[in-house]
Write a structure and sequence with these properties.
Number of strands: 12
Distance between the termini: 22 Å
Radius of gyration: 19 Å
Oligomer: single chain
Number of helices: 12
Order of helices and strands: EHEHEEEHEHHHEHEHEEEHHEHH
Structural class: alpha/beta
Length: 332
């Protein structure tokens, strides 16, 4: 799968579903155009991002380019209905209010085989394309469904896993896996042995601020089983890139204090905290790509600069000495 990506930097379109704010269309298109101009050729999206809004917006930009020139992934697990609802009343577990400025279409949870195929069909229309490269099974984890998450996982195991495996075998898609904010669903999938995901998207769990748990089992098992990992949210919802969100919520005083320590160290070595965050996520050999999100064109330029910034080995040594990264974490 790694050969699928021409570059280790992709683009995550969650912000373009009007995450946290109502983003003007011209700002969205300028951001997407900037991503393309900066050489980004891997785009990830999902029906969940603004109830189809991000997919539609991404589709408008990609329609201007040759389909063979980019890699595209989206997700299944939610059907977008024509029925409307108040976005502020949606039950999104720990992620309440995330897309309250997105489309008002009702989102129906469905991890069955039929639901998987229906979701893909809808996504292809919104994305204005005839094929997908990668499909992720979205959010089958505790942060969205609480104690019932295993029920949804079991539905996906019997439905989506089999449907996507068949699509891969038929050559309709190039790979599939999970797209989650927790390590447990991916760990369980790898241990099952009955399904072989090619690649999975792990959001927020392999960053400078949160990586110890992923290092315990997930990353070693991914390498052992030949499953690649795409790191979503390498800036931990923005706190590592100048924002004030961590885990999609306002950052706690403890997180802010830790970020200030990292920032102070980065400043002393003359590097940006953004470069440290991005290059840390990419240093693990299991990681095929990282997909920061953005809603402003200048952020894309910053990402490219961060990717290529030279970070002295002494910086990482001091990060480890100060217990700001795990002892066994691979470093850039």
């Amino acid at each position: 799968m790694g050969k699928l990506f021409k570059d280790k930097l992709g683009f995550g379109t969650a912000p373009l579903g009007n995450m946290f704010r109502n983003i003007p269309e011209e700002e969205v298109m300028a951001t997407l155009d900037a991503a393309w101009e900066q050489g980004i050729r891997y785009f990830d999206t999902a029906p969940f991002y603004g109830a189809g809004l991000a997919e539609t917006r991404l589709g408008k930009m990609l329609a201007n380019h040759n389909r063979d020139d980019y890699v595209l992934s989206t997700k299944i697990g939610r059907i977008i209905s024509d029925e409307l609802e108040d976005p502020t009343t949606r039950d999104l577990g720990e992620k309440g209010g995330l897309f309250e400025f997105g489309n008002k279409n009702k989102m129906i949870v469905d991890y069955s085989a039929d639901g998987t195929l229906r979701s893909i069909e809808q996504s292809l229309k919104r994305l204005n394309t005839d094929r997908l490269d990668i499909v992720y099974i979205h959010d089958i984890a505790q942060d969205f469904y609480g104690d019932e998450w295993l029920i949804h996982f079991e539905t996906a195991r019997k439905g989506a896993f089999k449907a996507l495996t068949k699509l891969k075998e038929e050559g309709v898609i190039k790979g599939w896996g999970l797209g989650v904010n927790r390590v447990e669903p991916i760990e369980i999938t790898l241990e099952l042995g009955e399904a072989k995901p090619d690649i999975s998207l792990l959001a927020g769990r392999y960053t400078l601020l949160d990586h110890e748990k992923a290092l315990q089992r997930l990353m070693p098992n991914a390498l052992k089983e030949g499953m690649e990992v795409v790191v979503g949210g390498p800036y931990s919802s923005g706190i590592l890139a100048g924002g004030n969100h961590f885990e999609y919520q306002k950052a706690s005083p403890e997180i802010i204090a830790k970020v200030e320590k990292i920032k102070s160290l980065a400043t002393r070595y003359g590097i940006s905290i953004k470069a440290a965050a991005l290059q840390f996520s990419l240093a693990n050999p299991a990681v095929a790509a990282a997909i920061p999100g953005a809603s402003k064109p200048d952020r894309i330029v910053e990402d490219k600069v961060a990717l290529n910034e030279k970070i002295p080995a002494e910086f990482w040594e001091e990060m480890r000495k100060e217990h700001l990264v795990a002892e066994d974490a691979p470093l850039a």
